[in-house]
Amino acid sequence: MKTPLWFPQSFFARTLWLVLIVVLFSKALTLVYLMMNEDVLVDRQYSHGAALTLRAYWAADPEDRATIAEAAGLKPVPHEQVPATEQH
C-alpha cells in the first residue's frame, strides 16, 4: 500500500512531525493543568509572600519592627483570639 502524498515520505520528516505532536500535546496538557489548578497556585504565591513578610519582620531589629508592621499591615493579635487551627 502506498502512503498518501500529504504524508511525510522521509524518516527525518516523520520524526520531526512526531516530535512536534508530542511537544504540542505536552503543552496542551500543561495548559489544562494550570487552568485547573490556578487557585492553588495563586494561594501558594500569597502564602509565600506572607511568609517572607513575617520572616523579614522577625529578622529585623526590634526597633524597626513597628515600621515594618505598619508598612505590611501586620496587626498583633492576642493568643486567645487566634483560631485553634493556626500554628506559629
Task: Please explain how this structure is put together.
The protein is mainly α and 88 residues long. It has a domain at 38-79. Helices cover 64% and strands 0% of the residues. It has helices at 11-36, 38-59, 65-72. α2 runs antiparallel to α3 (65-72). It is rod-shaped and about 80 Å long. The N and C termini lie far apart (71 Å). The model has no long low-confidence stretch (mean pLDDT 89).
Summed up, what is this model?
The protein has 88 residues and is mostly helical. Helix content is 64%, strand content 0%.
Notable characteristics:
88 residues; mainly alpha; 3 helices; rod-shaped
Helical residue percent band: 55-70%
- The total of beta strands comes to 0
**Helix/strand structural class:** mainly alpha
Number of helices: 3
Percent strand: under 5%
List the helices and strands and how they pair.
Layout: H1 11-36, H2 38-59, H3 65-72
